[in-house]
Fold each of these.
Amino acid sequence: MARLEESVVDGSRAPGKASPKDLPSVDRLLREPVVAQLVAEHGHSCVAQQVRLLVDDLRSRVLQGTLEASEVGAEALSAAVQQRVAGRLAPRMRNVLNLTGTVIHTNLGRALLADEALAHLLKMMSGPNNLEYDLATGGRGDRDSIVEELLTTLTGAEAATIVNNNAAAVLLTIAALARDREVIVSRGELVEIGGAFRMPDVMASAGANMVEVGTTNRTHPHDYERAINDRTALLMKVHTSNYAVQGFTSAVSEAELSAIAHARGLPVATDLGSGALVDLAAWGLPREPMPQEMLAAGCDVVTFSGDKLLGGPQAGLIVGSRASIGKIRKYPMKRALRMSKLPLAALEATLMIYLRSDRVAQDLPTLRLLTRPESDIRRLAQALFPAVAEAVGPRFSVSVEGMQGQIGSGSLPVERLASAGLAIAPVAKKGAGRALDELATALRRLPVPVIGRISEDRLLLDLRCLEDSALFAAQLPALRQALS
Ligand SMILES: *Cc1c(COP(=O)(O)O)cnc(C)c1O
């Protein structure tokens, strides 16, 4: 560093490089017309901060001898400030196109909200609302009551309560019903889902002692019966949402487990994870257990997510008997896990859609995408094929192909959705891996990033979730430029 500084000072600077005396002052830069315009738009402090950061950066580069003389011209400097301000003010959360083939993709925000949910959310958030205010009495209300009747109507439960997400619903249920006591669960159901949610750890966090029974593949009624003692507080079933135990297997059904528990005065809780409110088999999709079935089988509490198959906002829904839900609702931890008014508004409007059950597959984006016919998706792929082939140029070959998508978010882990899309493969075998990375990167850098998946040396764009094909097509010239 010291030597570099000396070399600048003694004038042995490489030709074309800027010298320290070329550096602008912060004040001078702020007076440049383009920058002054930015100040008028965004305020002094935001723009001045970016100007200061730019000048710091230029100073350190001039000392390293890497700053070009052309970079310190008024026009170049103004453009640099403009770029920094735009970068600083660009939201980090952005829309992307999910062409992964996974419909409910946790990393891409899970379920898409229905138009009605968005409209209700916007309306409720643009002014005060009766979140916790009882309009009939003028007294304090309870936010649960906004959706409780909808949830009990749709699931047949006696009562319902809501929290921030399903992980919170499970944690709260266990803590409220079994803190400092024992919870019996089958070894075949000790799930780990993404984001460090592992059933044994959740039990420990809730302060319950987990008692594992049975084996990985087989658990029998007598396994539960033998484990019950006077410290037992709860029998628990967990839907194995992201894996399947197949072959020589046996599990105790919710109905059998409820009979065992109720004969001893104990409750049963079932964590469904996804939990569909409608029978997906009606659209030829694989069946997912429904909360209403679990309640009908005798379960006292059923927990499920708002943003998986339900197709709503992030939420943890807890439905069940009046006695169990009453304990859960009164448990102090509930306050820390409570749902915000934003998702609550979206949840209410989403549940309303289920009241008009004939229209759910049109009105709920998640179901609309899941039930989209393969032939439609293939037609879309064929229509986009020529433009995509042109955009990726001669280095890649493109083909329209059948693909295997999935529901995602731990629903029906082994089932595949017959889908279609575009497969893009590097033409040259040599450097194919690098070419694929370059392609995936170029797609991610588009104004609306396109997220595909790489499989067997090809980049697959599964088009099941592409509804705005014009938006995708409009970006192809930019893709072409990035790859040329
Ligand atoms: C997804 C899932 C959860 C967690 O739900 P979140 O809404 O993500 O908090 C819990 N249990 C099971 C079985 C799940 O599949």
Amino acid sequence: MRPARARIDLQALRHNYRLARRLGGDRALAVVKADAYGHGAVACAQALAADVDGFGVACIEEALQLREAGIAQPIVLLEGCFDADELTLVDRHGLWPVVATEAQLQALERHPPTRPLRVWLKLDSGMHRLGFDAAGFAEAWRRLHALPGVAGVVAMTHLARADELACAHTAEQIDAFDRVCSPLPVSETSIGNSAGLLAWPRARREWVRPGLMLYGASRFDGPCAEAEELHPVLTLESRIIAVRELGPGEPVGYGGTYVTDAPTRIGVVALGYADGYPQFAPTGTPVSIDGRPGRLVGRVSMDMLTVDLSDHPQAGPGSQVQLWGDRVRVAEVAARCGGSAYQLMTGLKRVAREYRD
Ligand SMILES: *Cc1c(COP(=O)(O)O)cnc(C)c1O
């Protein structure tokens, strides 16, 4: 069997969730959209079910997948409904929709819920993606409360730059949110995604919405002590399937982008960009070979990649190579490739997943 795998540590997932809730102080919505950032939404939701206050997903299809797997906890549709037909399913499955646009609000007014519905009303506090502006938010708040069946409204907003530790924009967004909420009888609020809740104490409200941090990664432009407590959840690994002993001046792989400058041992690893490893990871991107630091050399192929074994005389066919996980941080690999941990995680495909509880 092809040795490429993603090993997923569900204990680490639970540890990270508990960290989010401890920091947040109250309730934490575990964001499992995009198949739990590539970790498997059903498996992750089941692993968290006993602890969790609720789940966050991007769309109703993702919510129904969880309900069909027996997940009974609250589920928030983070972008709300895409059309009014979905409200029947929202009602039937007891989902909690975000209301972020006038169209979503009108749909709810035309199809009022038949059983108590909790709504998350979104303010655009400065990201300018989804959400009502300040005046529209107060008006939407009143219209929602006038609807029979609306049993509670959580006031929410989303931060655009919480990963930039010295950026004033985050405090401005939080100020804007508080200015809009303070005249309203708001009892539950939600601001922080992972970066917000890790690095910005003022973003820790009744509800926090951790996504990336659940999977053990973060992305900050400087040190963040809270993020050091995260445990990586997914280890992407494969094995060496062949070794080449090359003299100096020999090119390796497509394009001959890497040329040996001395006698070099090259290991061929059974994992490539069709598995979700970044195709343009440069020579020097860190890997771990049998538990010791190593480096990628040459261009990544679809099904294989090559590593430098010159400093790994003990390594050979069958040796374990970790591409990211507990020894190589996914965020570091992402940084080398000009991408993000979000992108690498959600881009995983083809590799077999192995869960450990
Ligand atoms: C995806 C998402 C989150 C989680 O974001 P992370 O940066 O992964 O923690 C939180 N809130 C909303 C509205 C989202 O769409």
